[in-house]
Amino acid sequence: MADAFLSSPPVNKNNQFSERWMITSAIIVIILVGILHSVSKLVKRLKSQGATAASLPPGPRGLPIVGYIPFLMYNGRKIPIHRQFNDLAAQYGPIFKIWVGGQLHVVISSPALAKQVLRDDESNFSGRDLPLAIRACTYGGLDLAGLPMGRDWNFMKKVVLREVLSNPSLDRCYELRRSVVVKALREVRSGQPVGVLELAHKMVANATMAMTWGGSDHGDVVDKDKTRRLGDEMMTLMEQPNVSDAFPLLARFDLQGIGRKAAEAAGRFDRIITSVIQKRFDGEGSLIITEEGKEKKDLLQVLLETRERSGAGSSLASMNQFKALLLDITPGGAGNIATVIEWAMTELVKCDKAMTNVKRELDDVVGLESLVEDHHLKKLNYLDAVVKETFRLYQVIIQRQALQPCTIGGYDIPKKAKVMVNAWAIHMDPRLWEVPTEFRPERFLESGNGMMPFDFQGSNSHFVYIPFGSGRRICAGINLATRMLKYVLASLLHSFDWKLPAGEGGSTVDVSDEFTLIIKKKKPLTIVPTPRLSCPDLQA
Ligand code: HEM
């Protein structure tokens, strides 16, 4: 972040130093004034809500004004935030606080307290404090993840769960994702190293776009690669730490330029989505007729028909909310899925036993003469366990905001405090999981320990397993995420044998991670494919 402050362009070599010094000093003064103002406002707010420092959760001392930011960012070891929070929980307990600039963050690391936040007291913890870049990219927070829980959110969530991303709707657009995935498999060359994240991202993002609005294969409206790159650009901006988020008074200065860049990228994305929707209103490209003569609807078509039925033009059905929802699906959801695929492949190339088991199951269920198809997925139990175990190891922090002052675990939580459930810490707790750091898909196949079977809702595992959050604000894309992830992962594993490049062994694979909005692999996984199917579909 410091670099961003100091990187104003030099005008003249001779006075470069004094120019920089003046700009830097000016920025520092603005920051200090802004920070002091934010802090004094916050102290007043806390006092007015009756929360005293003594009744807040315990936590590490930060520095005046900036709070704990320097320790999180410059601790010399670059430890990702989910791991730092886990270390702090070991010191301060399952609920602790830190100040990030003028903002109070409360971090939760136990199933019982997660249940209170996500389920028992969910309407109070249903807020989301959106970073400015996310607001800029989602029409001011109009996407489903950003909308406050209320009439519009209820309507949109119902539309998504019952119509757009329901299983029947995803069945209807299977051909659209299949054609993209098969095309990408055909492009994989035997013996040539493949960057797994890049390939998975291309497959998932293009397939998601094809499912969502038909893509360029069906209507020549959108250049898929260009749109995917634009989506990446937006995601990168959303993930960047922004000083304006920690010190809202500085937001108007947009010191890092993140707000401006995000608004500009969002404008370009909006033009794409608007042109796609306009074509639909003009009656173009709404239905796809497959080779078997069946009509298939893409997700946008389902969305527009639902909007029509619900009375188009009402505030509930505001067009920007619908457009923002498309952004949740792609690029938002697609990026998450590709990241989890890279983690799953990483664990499998490291673990011969799991790789052998998953391949044996694919051979039994699918056979070496066929590609994986959607209908096979329900029978792939070991693959299901691999996916669940990958979610356990690489899941993330669930972010909410308190809408009213309240208490958790006996501590006061003031209104507007950011409440973060560190799902990763819960998934890694040795009191809850046997050898939690080990990749062991079998733990999701076993039964009889009183907590099985694990699902993705949180409640039947007593909040020990919460990769998609829980309660009414639970992830809206579970169906799409799990079906797409299993389909792409199974297709890659069944179509090719994957080996590490010469000289690398399973034990040497780098598994270091970093936290942005999700847990990402720091060093991309590169592996080498050898075809294993005698299947005409793969011969282009
Ligand atoms: C690997 C895949 C994914 C993971 C691990 C994941 C995880 C999550 C988590 C942890 C939350 C917060 C839930 C809470 O606050 O309790 C969430 C919310 C959400 N996710 Fe996902 N997600 C994934 C994929 C997707 C996809 C593909 C979509 C596509 C539509 C999606 C759409 C959403 C939306 C709209 C919300 C906000 C729901 C609300 O606030 O009501 N996610 N997701």
Automatic annotation (TrEMBL):
Chain positions recorded as heme binding sites: C475
Q: Which residues cross the membrane?
A: 20-39
GO MF: heme binding; iron ion binding; monooxygenase activity; oxidoreductase activity, acting on paired donors, with incorporation or reduction of molecular oxygen
Q: Does the UniProt entry include the keyword Iron?
A: yes
Q: Which UniProt keywords apply?
A: Heme, Iron, Membrane, Metal-binding, Monooxygenase, Oxidoreductase, Transmembrane, Transmembrane helix
Q: Does the keyword Oxidoreductase apply?
A: yes
Q: What Gene3D superfamilies does UniProt report for this protein, alphabetically?
A: Cytochrome P450 (1.10.630.10)
What the entry lists under InterPro entries is as follows: Cyt_P450, Cyt_P450_CS, Cyt_P450_E_grp-I, Cyt_P450_sf
Tell me the superkingdom of the source. Answer: Eukaryota
Which cofactors are reported in the record for this sequence?
heme
Q: Which family does it belong to?
A: Belongs to the cytochrome P450 family.
Q: What PANTHER family does this protein's entry cite? A: FLAVONOID 3',5'-HYDROXYLASE-LIKE ISOFORM X1, OS08G0547900 PROTEIN
The protein, known as:
Cytochrome P450
Organism per entry: Linum trigynum
Query: Organism classification, top ranks?
Result: Eukaryota, Viridiplantae, Streptophyta, Embryophyta, Tracheophyta
